[in-house]
Specification:
The chain has one helix and 53 strands. By secondary structure, it is mainly β.
């Protein structure tokens, strides 16, 4: 029979102190061996789970460079069982004087050595963080360099903005500002009460903004303390001045900032009643009706409660209750069921003018009406000629059953309705009355007047209707006369008149060849004539172009003007002649260019006003020039040398 071999148990961590060897006895049976085996497994894992471990650094302090008079902090963390004891020393001597402050955190597993103020040469040395327990001793070393302020190396970090004293209400957001510069750009970290703030948790209330500022949301009393920002790069590290954050906790009994107000509602209608209470702590708010509670205690809202009532059939008093540990307050709102007013009768038009409509109507209600609302809109057609559904204009607060709507457009169709308002709300609107305002003389002249010679004694004139007609145009009146041979404006023009009906074209005959004629056109409704168009000039010579129209000029730069115009009626233009003259100059200049509708006039003086006029030339002669205009170049951006 083969000899029985020993069974060896080792701890999963291969700890040599936790190894158990079971030697089977020849006389032992299978059941006794199994019991020994189970005992061995229990021993290994029960004892192994409580195994002691030597110290080990989870975070070591690093070399650091500071500035004289400033601060330096070294931090190290250790793990081990029993918990290691952490000490700090330099040159073999343990530290703990008033300039060397040692702060433990995380139950003693972390330690910070803070040196303040730093002294050159004296503090320049290596600093040791030592951790020891019954199973071992470990040491980490880092060097501190202290620069004098005047000898700080280039790129050494600098605090440009230190955090300031701040007081914040509890649960509000506090932001501690910090800005730093250096080369390379320094990294900013934050300390609270001389200990580093952990910012690695994304969902934390405390986070660092991209600007470097520290933002604390939903502030708590535990956030109160002294805050510093630390800027560091490969050159060195600098600490800001410390600033205190105070978290203020108020104790205020509940009170209603928005007490519930009584409301009226139509039968079967819906209504919301709002109740807002404040205090510190914030109170719970609920609604009750007699013994009926509308919000179970587990679902009571904080600070604000909205009572939503639907299909209201009868009036009732509802009570809003606000409660906190500091007290209970109540307020009552009365919900009254009341109907909206009936619509008034269809309005009747009693008077119209070109810009107003006067209406009257019957109230249609037995109960008092607070006021009326007039709703009106125009029936101006769309581009396709169909009526346009413009939105209604409203006139509020009308207290009589007669009203004049003013500020309307002449000769325009309007739809007008009326609604009554009581203390419940606005009722249905009445049937509409549709009416038209009266006519008025046109407010603007005919547009785009142009002329050309049909022969040396006959002229064709065209135009477009006015922009603001104010009625149906019944006729157009063409005013024309011979311009003075001594120049425009030198003598009054003796005007002759020619009228046309329902036409945008007129032909003038019996003209004198080679003379220059002035032309103006006027539109007229049944009420009267509107303003005359601007004077247009044309030579009574066949083939000579008409006068260009709508001459404009605007500054393109400090030395150029962009000139534009509408081309005259006569075609076959071969050149344009642009006349320009600097303000105050004695001589007018002229430049010619090919046909077009614009021209860039260059080589002008900056910030200077020019007088411009334009004429068109064909093979048969030169057109009358446009009325002169004035335009100014932009000032130069470069200052002139004195």
């Amino acid at each position: 029979m083969p000899a029985k071999r020993p069974v060896t148990f080792r701890h999963p961590g291969n700890d040599p102190l936790l190894t158990l060897v079971i030697m089977p006895q020849p006389s032992s049976g299978r059941s006794q061996f199994c019991s020994h085996l189970l005992f061995g497994l229990f021993f290994i894992f029960a004892v192994g789970s409580q195994a002691e471990t030597p110290p080990r650094f989870t975070q070591k302090h690093a070399d650091q460079a500071g500035i004289a008079g400033g601060v330096a902090s070294f931090l190290c963390r250790v793990t081990g069982d029993p918990r290691p004891n952490i000490t700090w020393s330099r040159r073999g001597r343990r530290l703990g004087s008033h300039r060397f402050e040692v702060i433990e955190f995380d139950g003693g597993s972390g330690s910070v050595l803070r040196i303040q103020p730093l002294r050159p040469q004296r503090d320049e040395t290596t600093y040791e963080c030592s951790a020891v327990n019954t199973l071992g001793h470990i040491t980490a070393i880092a060097r501190l360099v202290v620069h004098k302020v005047e000898n700080a190396p280039a790129g050494f970090p600098r605090i440009d903005m230190s955090p300031q004293l701040k007081v914040v209400e509890r649960t509000h957001t506090a932001t501690m500002l910090c800005a730093a510069s250096g080369q390379p750009e320094p990294h900013i970290a934050w300390y609270k009460d001389f200990l580093p703030i952990e910012l690695s948790v994304p969902s934390s209330r405390i986070r660092q903004l991209r600007s470097g500022a520290l933002q604390i949301s939903d502030s708590a009393e535990s956030d109160q303390g002294k805050y510093e920002c630390v800027a560091s790069n490969i050159i060195g590290t600098v600490y800001s001045s410390a600033a205190n954050l105070y978290v203020r906790v108020r104790r205020v009994p509940p009170w209603f900032s928005v007490p519930p107000a009584g409301v009226e509602v139509i039968p079967g209608g819906s209504v919301n009643v709002t109740c807002v209470a404040v205090g510190s702590p914030m109170p719970y708010v609920k609604w009750v009706l007699g013994a009926e509670d509308f919000a179970p205690e587990a679902d009571m809202p904080v600070g604000k409660s909205v009572l939503e009532l639907h299909d209201v059939a009868e009036s009732a008093n509802y009570t809003c209750v606000a409660m906190s540990a500091l007290g209970v307050v109540e307020a009552t709102a009365q919900v009254t069921v009341k109907a909206l007013p009936h619509p008034p009768s269809k309005p009747t038009v009693s008077e119209t003018t070109a810009t107003s409509i006067t209406l009257t109507w019957d109230s249609g209600n037995v109960e008092p009406v607070a006021y009326y609302v007039l709703l009106y809109r125009s029936h101006l057609p769309n581009v396709d000629g169909r009526p346009s559904e413009h939105p209604y204009h409203e006139i509020d607060g009308v207290t009589t059953t007669r009203y004049t709507v003013g500020g309307l457009s002449p000769f325009s169709e309007y739809e007008i309705r009326v609604a009554a308002v009581n203390n419940v709300g606005r009722g249905m609107i009445s049937d509409a009355v549709v009416t038209r305002t009266g006519e008025q003389a046109p407010s603007s002249p005919p547009r785009n007047v142009r002329a050309r010679m049909l022969s040396s004694t006959a002229m064709l004139i065209r135009w477009d209707p006015p922009q603001e007609r104010n009625g149906r145009i019944r006729s157009y009146h063409v005013h024309y006369g011979v311009a003075s041979s001594q120049g425009r404006g030198s003598m009054p023009i003796t005007w002759q008149h020619h009228s046309v009906h329902d036409s945008l074209v007129a032909t003038l005959t019996g003209l004198t060849p080679s003379l220059e004629y002035a032309i103006r056109v006027q539109a007229a409704t049944a009420v009267g004539g509107g303003p005359l168009s601007k004077e247009q000039f044309i030579h009574a010579n066949l083939g000579v172009p008409g006068q260009p129209t709508d001459l404009k000029a605007e500054a393109e730069s400090a030395t150029s003007l962009l000139v534009s115009w509408n081309i005259p009626e006569e075609e076959h233009i071969i050149k344009y002649e642009l006349y320009f003259q600097q303000k105050g100059a004695q001589k007018e200049q002229m430049i010619t260019f090919d046909p077009g509708v614009s021209y860039l006039l260059r080589n002008l003086q900056p910030g200077t006003t020019y007088h411009l006029r334009l004429a068109a030339r064909s093979h048969y002669g030169l057109s009358p020039s446009t009325p002169p205009i004035w335009a100014q170049t932009t000032p130069s951006c470069v200052p002139m040398e004195s």
